[in-house]
Amino acid sequence: MDMEATKIVLDEQDMPRQWYNIQADLPTPIPPPLGSDGKPISPDDLASVFPMNIIEQEVSTERWITIPEPVREMLTLWRPSPLYRAKRLEAALGTPAKIYYKNEGVSPAGSHKPNTAIAQAYYNKEFGIRYLTTETGAGQWGSALAMSCKLVGIECKVFMVRISFDQKPFRKIMMKTWGAECIASPSPLTAVGRKILAEQPDTPGSLGIAISEAIEQAVEREDTRYALGSVLNHVMLHQTIIGLEAKKQFEKISRSPDIVIGCAGGGSNFAGISFPFIYDKIHGRDMRIIATEPEACPTLTRGPYIYDAGDVAKKTPLLAMHSLGHGFIPPAIHAGGLRYHGMAPLVSHVLKHNLIEATALPQTECYEAALLFAHTEGFIPAPETSHAIAQTIREAKQAREEGKEKVILMNWSGHGLMDLQGYDAFMSGRLEDYPLPDELLQQSLAAVRDHPKI
Ligand SMILES: Cc1ncc(COP(=O)(O)O)c(C=O)c1O
Q1: Which atom from ligand 1 is nearest to the alpha carbon of 414?
Q2: Domain range holding 297?
Q3: Measuring from each residue's beta carbon to the nearest atom of ligand 1, which residues come in under 6 Å?
Q4: What is the pLDDT of residue 453?
Q5: Nearest partner of 426 among 365, 361, 384, 360, judged by Cα
Q6: Which end of the chain is less packed: N or C, by CB atoms within 10 Å?
Q7: Nearest atom of ligand 1 to the alpha carbon of 265
């Protein structure tokens, strides 16, 4: 076996001091968010939902944005995260490829989500906000925000998508342990929740519904704002610490990746690992950057690039993104964090500029990949992360066919220790693949036909 170290680690003082803002380097600016009148919104239009210090980051085009010292201090609870060389997985695949994975599962909540949760909780507290509301799919984001709110000293209320609420009881307890309230969505607490429950009492829920409920509650109170775990520009910005660290780690071993892979739900961990490398690609480096998604919720691969709302009740501005339609309720697959109808506008934009590729994968291939990973590397991945692993395995096999020593970097976005129901279902042969039927996609897209085109 290769003598290179298994873990490439950085000292705390080498943790990045600035986030990278890709908006400074895009070939064209991203299309602006639009209000319901079809005109670009102003920062003030977002003021009842987000604090102004976060809105300023959302629209900033400065390349480097300093990480506040108290945020850095909290991030050092688990950062810098280790970069692993997956030598045992390589050996099992018999590939000449060198596979590296950035382990974001080492955070207290178990995924990359605290990278932005800490920053968002901090900026809200600085702005004088006392309560944050949010949505959560798999529960990773809700628990990340619950922990972050507790660390900075504000209150947190989480609307958790019904299907995950039932599938992942321990996530609720984690949120409660960190002092947050966790409510199944749709809920009777909001007008939008009551309406949906009256129409579809047995709905599995969706991130689009949970976002509507969380925003509805945030705008009702002066001391309350809303936090989103993905999609928006400032979330992508905070996550770039992942790729910035990975670059330093590759410098330490005098290598750089030929292929970068991340799973994409709303796009944040993918953006986090890839944007600092896209900077190199924009400046001439030849590399492939791949976003992977479930074939049951194929936003980047089958959704049109249009203006659409980020939530079911259209409480958000219209965002320029790939979308399956804001009313789309994805099938109840186990990768709850990938069940989102839209995509980060920044990720959609870099796809449109061919700076990245996208693939859609069946869930059983992903679970098989997750098992092989657990059998070789030990760690049990989150079902979302398994999509990045499955694509990595495809690329490593391709390298074997071609006899090429490619360097592959994958973002290991989180552990699956709270997601074991899905593993149980897979190992007992109860999981099926679910390629999204075209009729369902067309039905959902019918509702957005009149939205502005890009
Ligand atoms: C472990 C993990 N990976 C990936 C995702 C997908 O989100 P994003 O695309 O914003 O990284 C989630 C979302 O909940 C998650 O929990």
Answers
A1: 1
A2: 7-15+71-110+234-446
A3: 111, 137-138, 140-141, 230, 263-270, 337-338, 382, 384-385, 413-414
A4: 83
A5: 365
A6: N
A7: 9
> 368-393: per-residue pLDDT in tens?
999 999 999 999 999 999 999 999 99
Distance CA 185, CA 60 (A): 33
What is the rounded radius of gyration, in angstroms, for the C-alpha atoms of the chain?
A: 20
**Count of H-run helices and E-run strands, the chain:** 18, 15
Say what percent of the chain tops pLDDT 70.
Answer: 100
Whether residues 139 and 80 fall in one domain: no
For residue 37, the CA-to-ligand 1 centroid distance in Å is 32
339 and 425 belong to one structural domain: yes
Report how far ligand 1's centroid is from the alpha carbon of 76 (Å).
21
The predicted structure's pLDDT at residue 304:
96
pLDDT at 201 exceeding the cut of 60: yes
Confidence of residue 331 (pLDDT cuts 50, 70, 90): confident
Q: Which residue has the tokens 């949760």?
A: 117
Q: Kindly report the pTM of this predicted structure.
A: 0.97
- Parallel/antiparallel/unpaired status of strands 18-20 and 83-85: unpaired
